[in-house]
Design brief:
alpha/beta; Rossmann fold; twelve-stranded mixed beta sheet; 10 helices; 21% strand; globular
């Protein structure tokens, strides 16, 4: 593909960043080349596993249909592409259509009786929308519907969950790293070959605000060539909507303009978070990353506050996904004189919003458009 994909900023202490530096080609030398050869061998084994899985999915009875319509939100690459805000967007859209959504996810990293950070973030983004977590998505939907109303199930990270039939299959493609450096994991970021895009009912380019318009146009052409003919290619932006401070106050996103800040996160694409902050006009004096889904400790946060203080900044910012774990550890403490806030982000479709709305509304012929 013709896209120039975002290469990571290396960190000597983050294993995920070191791996990204190798697979992206940023890290040079004999050792990095040898590591890429080894990872390519592992990726070949992974591809074989995918082929076996795909054959199994074609066997009679392997794919089940839920007792309600299913809309899936997924991606082709590991790391963040905006699935959580997109799921929240769909849940609000379904509610506006007068229907009752159910969010269903695998529940990666969750503990019995304790939802993971994605579930907590979705509760904040779309309060009151039920959310069940179970690796067996069909069983989760069926169990919910035995005693609760549901007009549509929205699968969070469902593109690779082939055992459940879906009515609308949406694939998100991050404009910064659209094609996973051209290789399957662990040699690259692709969870499936690019040919899997032919299963998608629509593709949505996310984080379009972080690349030039020419790059977005080129990516749309590349996706159109990979997908089935006439598959809609939509474009979305991540729009910062505000800064939720840990003291309970809220500030507009524009408040960051001209501010010196420290930032930290544990997400799949931390560089995208950094670019978002910088695009808001903040001066990032310190940027600390952790592995995706990192289980923060109180010591981690104490250290971050001390680093921010040593850098001479008064504000430490993180993502909404990280903040739910930070709040649980810090409680009402602010770590004065460093104040802490979470950058709130929403998905805004800038191309094709009517296409998505009509496709979802068509699940119920009598729903208002």
């Amino acid at each position: 593909m013709a896209m120039n994909e975002l290469r990571p900023t290396r960190s000597p202490t983050d294993p995920q960043a070191r791996w990204l530096a190798i697979v992206s080609g940023e890290k040079r030398g004999f050792g990095a080349a040898a590591a890429r050869c080894f990872l390519a061998h592992q990726a070949l084994l992974y591809r074989c596993g995918l082929a076996v899985r795909n054959l199994i999915c074609r066997l009679p009875g392997r794919v089940k249909r839920a007792p309600c319509p299913v809309v899936s939100v997924g991606n082709l690459t590991v790391g963040g592409t905006g699935k959580t805000p997109m799921v929240a967007y769909l849940a609000r859209l379904v509610t506006e259509l007068g229907k009752r959504p159910l969010i269903v996810s695998r529940g990666y990293g969750s503990r019995p009786g304790r939802p993971n950070e994605e579930a907590q973030e979705l509760e904040r983004l779309c309060p009151g929308v039920p959310h069940v977590q179970n690796p067996d998505r069909f069983a989760a939907i069926s169990a919910w519907m035995t005693g609760n109303p549901c007009d549509v199930a929205i699968l969070d990270d469902g593109f690779q969950h082939r055992r459940l039939a879906r009515d609308v299959d949406i694939v998100l493609v991050d404009a910064l790293r659209p094609f996973g450096f051209g290789h399957l994991v662990p040699r690259g970021l692709l969870r499936e070959p690019l040919s899997a895009l032919r299963r998608a009912d629509m593709a949505i380019v996310t984080r379009a605000e972080l690349v030039a318009e020419a790059e977005v146009s080129r990516l749309k052409r590349d996706l159109a060539a990979l997908a089935r003919p006439a598959t809609p290619i939509l474009v979305a932006r991540h729009q910062p909507t505000g800064l939720a401070m840990f003291d309970g106050s809220r500030r507009p996103a524009e408040w960051l303009r001209g501010e010196d800040v420290a930032a930290a996160c544990a997400i799949g694409n931390p560089e995208a978070f950094r670019r978002t902050i910088e695009q808001l006009g903040a001066r990032v004096k310190l940027f600390k990353t952790f592995r995706d889904h990192h289980a923060y400790t109180r010591e981690d946060l104490t250290h971050l506050i001390e680093l921010a203080r040593a850098a001479g900044v008064k504000t430490l910012v993180t993502t909404g996904k990280d903040s739910v774990k930070w709040v649980a550890l810090l409680g009402g403490e602010q770590g004065a004189p460093v104040e802490i806030g979470a950058v709130e982000v929403a998905i805004r479709l800038v191309e094709g919003e009517a296409i998505l709305r009509d496709r979802v509304a068509a699940l119920w012929p009598n729903a208002p458009c």
